[in-house]
Amino acid sequence: MKTYQCDIVVVGAGPGGSMAAKFCAQGGLDTILIEKKAEIGAPLRCAEGVSKKWLAEVGIEPDPTWIRGDMKGAIIKSPQGTEFRLDESKAGSEVGYVLERHLFDKALARDAAEAGAKIMLRTSATGVIRGADGNVCGIRGRSMGEEIEIRAKAVVAADGYESQVGRWAGIDTTLKLSDIDSCIQYRMCNIDVEPDFCEFVIGSVAPGGYVWIFPKGKGIANVGIGVMGSKCSKGADAKYYLDKFIAEDPRLSKGQCLEIMGGFVSTCPGLDCAVDDNVILVGDAARIIDPITGGGICHACRTGMYAGKVLTECAKKNDFSKDALMPYEKMWRDKMEDKLFRNWMAKEKLATLDDEVIDSIIKMIKGSDIKEVNVYNLLKVIKQRYPQVVEGFEDLI
Questions:
Q1: Which of 69, 100, 154, 250 has the smallest C-beta neighbourhood within 10 Å, fewest atoms?
Q2: Cα–Cα distance list, 112 to 15, 34, 143, 296, 316 (Å)
Q3: Homologous superfamily assigned to 49-100+176-266
């Protein structure tokens, strides 16, 4: 069996893994980044929408290579057709880019490689290695069909929603059914949607979630849906709801599918703790994802950066214990925890509202003078007329 030695092994070359590998390598750590697939960023498992505000924060320069659409605004709709339209002057950080995600992921992996990380494709983790003290000291895996070991001082689990590394390391990553969204998306052509506005439809068309339409130009768009897992029953799964929505929308009903993707998204406010001795979880693996939107690219990039910076400091003292890794917990919680918890509570409440109330809320928002539209400011307006929606987390609004 071939054995590799390094300082840090990162499992998963999505945005979180590549960012962690980049910042570890920049910190002088011998870093190996493994990816089970043959191509980074493919097959697609994402709606491909990101806001713009956070890119500079993590050192990502917008690149026309991976930007498919620069959105002017967003449209929020009720099942009855009431819509709230907002342009970039009001949408602020909530408006952004529609990506070519596979090119975006490759660009981040390239940055990691340029920083000095070694990338191994078609290399999957099959378990963790534990030392005499019982702590994790690397991973077992298969690379191009060959059994391997990668021994390291610390392991970064960036292996997404299905994260096995965290579970193997003894971190509880289980989810309630209500904290899982079943998702499916079609890349459609021959459709007639606004080219510069993302659309979001909430209510019974997508129980506990929403329908999205993210335009990609020339009559092409990502049309997808997320449905709360606990509301998928009696054959009414995400595909059922998406197909029904498309069939009833004349702009979409004559369209054709070029690509289908599906999967699951966690919608909880993060793990109780995303570190243990010699192990650190980032992004989807740590359940650090926006519970109300299911958006995770920003959170993955941030947590990957935080992990890389903390591991660099740990290396200076040669201490990768849980206590030494706890600054990572503080970093992501200080930046994101309140927002994630607030949005999780809002997600839980919104899932209980009927279409009439949702329609009334959107009409109310249309008549409100909101300077910048984001989830926080929307909830402030909702709180005034529908206090039951924010019951239990009023102090976060």
A1: 250
A2: 10, 12, 20, 19, 21
A3: D-Amino Acid Oxidase, subunit A, domain 2 (3.30.9.10)
CA distance 167 to 263: 19
| For the chain, domain boundaries | 2-43+102-174+270-344, 49-100+176-266, 352-396
Whether the pTM exceeds 0.90: the reply is: yes
Distance, in Å, from the CA atom of 33 to the CA atom of 42, rounded to the nearest integer, reads 16
Residue 93, pLDDT score: 54
Residues with Cβ within 8 Å of 64's Cβ and at least 6 positions away in sequence, in order, are: none
Instruction: For residue 38, count CB atoms less than 10 angstroms from its CB and return exposed for 0-12, middle for 13-18, buried for 19 or more.
Output: exposed
Six token digits for residue 365:
């928002």
Local mean pLDDT, 10-residue blocks, the chain (397 residues): 97 98 98 97 86 92 95 91 80 75 97 98 98 96 97 98 95 93 96 94 95 95 95 86 97 97 93 97 97 93 98 98 98 95 90 91 82 75 80 74
